[in-house]
């Protein structure tokens, strides 16, 4: 489950969508916040304006009603006061306070049958404002202030100021409206946000993401070798330029690869013809060298030169045979001659043939074969002998003097696995990738000054793969190399 978010965020579509969603969310949050604040401020101003207007208009009627009915018609007074206060629900309480600070009336303490007891106001600031002959507010009116109380003076007809009327303002309606506004804004913002994200996803998907995916898909097909694939996008922007560049690159690669294949074909044909045509003159040269060596009249110096000529001719013949083998395997012009092959006997035969080389370098063989004779393989004996001979030859060539060549054979399931280990120079990591390539000569070959054209391991790989087998190696530089060959006990075979 922890890997799921990482996998999702690898998609540019998801990452782009998340970024857009966050940006839109911030925009909607800021705009909604500004809208809510402005709406609340507007409602507060409206409420205050209405409360001030109400207090100015109602103070005289309330004062007159108090003077007429409070003492003689209390019930009538409370009824009229209730009707007046009902005109503005934001005024939650009204008090009538005398200039001496006596609370003559409190709308929250209305009794059904008689007026409440008179109490004294203890807040000196309120008493001071009651004595004033003008409207006042608590807190005092300032820029942007929210008054909670308004005090309006009451004047009788002849100008006397017996008391003032104190209005208590409630902002509960604004608070309730604020909750409704926030809920509405959240719902509208969520709706707009979802709609905007969907719209952006559709537009961006069609104009950017989908064309990019088309380019990626086409690039992968080209990577897989389909150079004839043409990426088609309708964009006239950078994505269209990218698609055109990839198409052009594919066509260039196609032309270059076709040219390389043609050159490779010509090279292979030349190698085949050259090596094939070399066989006849080499045979003639060998024959004449043999005739000359039988001439007893030749001196020691001439015989020594003939021996060098014979050795060089042999190397030239081996080179020609290697090139012919390579061409034969690559062109698949010769079927494998399948027979039952005993790998134990074949390995012993090969090791005996390298007796001279082993003796010169004082190398010892260690052969580890199963106690029970392993199964035979169905293979072309000469081809397999050539492949294994190349591996054993390398194990001897690139071994140290007095080293070991350890050859093991084991049977696993329906495969025989042969390993050939040496105690030589090893193979570097840089060389490892090229070991089985055609015409590759490792650095160690140059250091040991061995002749060769770098096709031995390449031919080995072709032969083993022709038998549905596998060849690989493990190596540590300076410690040695182990080559492994896996061959099926029973399989169908064809060259290549």
TrEMBL record:
Query: Which residue intervals define the domain Histidine kinase in the entry?
Result: 273-491
Q: Does this entry carry the keyword Magnesium?
A: no
Q: Where in the cell is it found?
A: Cell membrane
**Database matches in Gene3D superfamilies:** 1.10.287.130, 6.10.340.10, Histidine kinase-like ATPase, C-terminal domain
> Per its UniProt entry, which superkingdom is the organism in?
Bacteria
Q: Name one GO biological process term.
A: osmosensory signaling via phosphorelay pathway
* One GO molecular-function entry: phosphorelay response regulator activity
What CDD domains would the database entry show? Answer: HAMP, HATPase, HisKA
Q: Which Gene Ontology cellular-component terms appear in the entry?
A: plasma membrane
Going by the UniProt record, its keywords in alphabetical order are:
ATP-binding, Cell membrane, Kinase, Membrane, Nucleotide-binding, Phosphoprotein, Transferase, Transmembrane, Transmembrane helix, Two-component regulatory system
- A Pfam family hit: HATPase_c
Residue ranges of the TM segments = 12-37, 178-204
Its top-level enzyme class, in one word, is transferase
InterPro entries membership: BphY/WalK/GraS-like, HAMP_dom, HATPase_C_sf, HATPase_dom, His_kinase_dom, HisK_dim/P_dom, HisK_dim/P_sf, Sig_transdc_His_kin-like_C
Task: Tell me what this protein is called.
Answer: histidine kinase
The species is Candidatus Woykebacteria bacterium RBG_13_40_15
Q: Please name the taxonomic classification of the source.
A: Bacteria, Candidatus Woykeibacteriota
